[in-house]
Amino acid sequence: MKIKEILSILEEMAPLAYAEDFDNVGLLVGDANNETTGVLVCHDALENVIDEAITKGCNLVVCFHPILFSGLKKITGKNYVERAVIKAIKNDIAIYAVHTALDNHQNGVNKIFCDALGLINTKVLVPKQNFIQKLVTYTIPENADAIRNAMLEAGAGTIGNYDNCSFNSEGFSTYQGNENSNPSVGNKGELTKTNEIKIEVVFEKHLQSNILKALFSNHLYEEVAYEIYDLQNSHQNIGLGMIGEFETAMNEKEFLEFVKAKMICGGIRHSAFLGKPIKKVAVLGGSGSYAIKNAIQAGADAYLTADLKYHNFYEAENQLLLADIGHFESERYTKNYIVDYLTKKILNFANSLPSGRIMLSEENTNPVKYL
After folding, report:
1. I want to staple 156 with a disulfide (CB 3.0 to 4.6 A). Which of 124, 175, 201, 293 is the partner?
2. Chosen CATH of 3-100+333-360 out of 3.40.50.2000, 3.40.1390.30, 3.30.870.10, 3.30.300.30
3. 34, 38, 41: which is closest to 356 by C-alpha?
4. Which residues are registered as beta bridge partners of 322?
């Protein structure tokens, strides 16, 4: 089984188009055409993790955080990033990162976070913007079903919990082909007036090429009339953070003790207690200070995230309990999810890897220690 086949499965789990613009996801090091000897899944692809991959015979390391985040002008081994990359290249080990592609997925990092705490009725906290497009096209009634169905099969027409969504309206069109034309309806050189169906569908923008291929492959016309619009609608199922609720509320101290135990935190920094029960909780794995206002607007009783600075705690504004549980801790179960996902998928994949070759790294790459 080639590495690129596993990468395709990873992209089903976390489409790279979901990643934030600032991020660096996907295959960072290595040749995707190599045969896979084993997969090691980790949080950070540090040098000790590459050593572990070598020892365990794995030539693909799947990491959550990208080891290459910004550009490198030199690779001399002077820092931890360069040393890990050099060792991976020397040993023909590929490195693939998921990061915000999985952060933004509705079943990704923050759903894993919510599930670890037992939160129910979850939804995205900060929906992704500028990610939805709309296609409008026109055809004769006899061709409408074929075009519509092909675009829906290519991924168009999903809105929240609904799929196969489209809008269709009737009208008429006029056109006149020149001497080089070959019209499917009417004759060249003659003004033609015909009944048509206007078909409108929405789709995630990274699917545009698939949608257009489906349109062109199934349209009868020599020249296909279509329009694509960028929509300002937010995507309710893709985005950063999540908010959910407990079945039963608990007091603030009980809540923080519960979180500390579930997320295995070395310590929790938090804002002042407000004396209110905690039932509705917002979470955002990793650095999440930018979403404090979103948590407040969503009516959260508490907001769990990481990497908060001194002044961020003032932003709680006595409206919620704000807690920094640690960056690694807030994402700690992500690598387990990736292992489970790959194992399930590859078991059903032809010419799959030998049993037991998808492994969870035993290295703890959390750089923060607690006294």
Report:
1. 201
2. 3.40.1390.30
3. 38
4. 303
Dist. CA 136–CA 68, nearest whole Å: 40
Beta bridge partners of 250: 278
CATH of range 109-128+239-330; options 1.10.10.10, 3.40.1390.30, 2.40.50.320, 3.40.630.30: 3.40.1390.30
pLDDT in tens, the chain (371 residues): 899 999 999 999 999 999 999 999 999 999 999 999 999 999 999 999 999 999 999 999 999 999 999 888 889 999 999 999 999 999 999 999 999 999 999 999 999 999 999 999 999 999 999 899 999 999 999 999 999 999 999 999 998 889 999 999 999 999 999 999 999 899 999 999 999 999 999 999 999 999 999 999 999 999 999 999 999 999 989 999 999 999 999 999 999 999 999 999 999 999 999 999 999 999 999 999 999 999 999 999 999 999 999 999 999 999 999 999 999 999 999 999 999 999 999 876 655 666 568 999 999 999 999 98
